[in-house]
Amino acid sequence: MNAPQDWFQRIAPDVKMGKNVSIHGFSNLYGCEIGDDVKIGTFVEIQKGVKVGNRCKVSSHTFICEGVTLEDDVFVGHNVTFINDRYPRATNGSGQLKTQSDWICTPTRVKQGASIGSGATLLCGITIGEKALIGAGSVVTRDVPAGAVVAGNPARIIKPHA
To answer: Does residue 96 belong to any structural domain of this protein?
Structure first.
């Protein structure tokens, strides 16, 4: 059976796509900007307002939520999760399901040439410095200086400059 292409990936018409972008199956992109020469793996979701710079690689099973900016040459390993809400709740103070107006999107920035290891989780409101390296499985709760290597839960500097 030949299934329609949109069963395997969804790229909304509002996505701004650069040149030479490779997107593998079962991906979901909407309202985002993707730079030139970017490679996006299988089972990736990139939400509205996200900016992915040139020559980035986003590995499979990764979730990049609204408010995230990846500058040029960023590597994102498999199964990386970004978070954009400091105080997540299903309902507001009156017990109603939260809507877009009930929360504040807190931005995160990953600067040029940084690398994020597989399975890492990045909380919102942080900046990952240029050429920093996040160890696999780390939970990043604060800014990471340029060139630093961090690892652990919570992530701590294990090498100040790579």
So the answer is: no
Would 94 be classed as within a structural domain? no
**Domain at 37, CATH number:** 2.160.10.10
108 neighbors 125 (Cβ within 8 angstroms): yes
The pTM for the full model equals: 0.92
Pairing of strands 149-152, 155-159: antiparallel
- 96-135 burial: b if 16+ Cβ within 10 Å, else e: eeeeeeeeebbebbbbbbbbbbbbbbbbbbbbbbbbbbbb
Identify whether 4 is part of a domain. no
Would you say the C-alpha torsion 54, 56, 58, 64 has a positive or negative sign? Answer: negative
Name the residue range of residue 22's domain.
9-86+101-159
* Domain-located, residue 131: yes
Residue type, 66: E
Structure confidence by residue, pLDDT tens digits, 13-55? 999 999 999 999 899 999 999 999 999 999 999 999 999 999 9
The Cα angle at residue 13 between residues 50 and 120, in degrees rounded to 5: 30
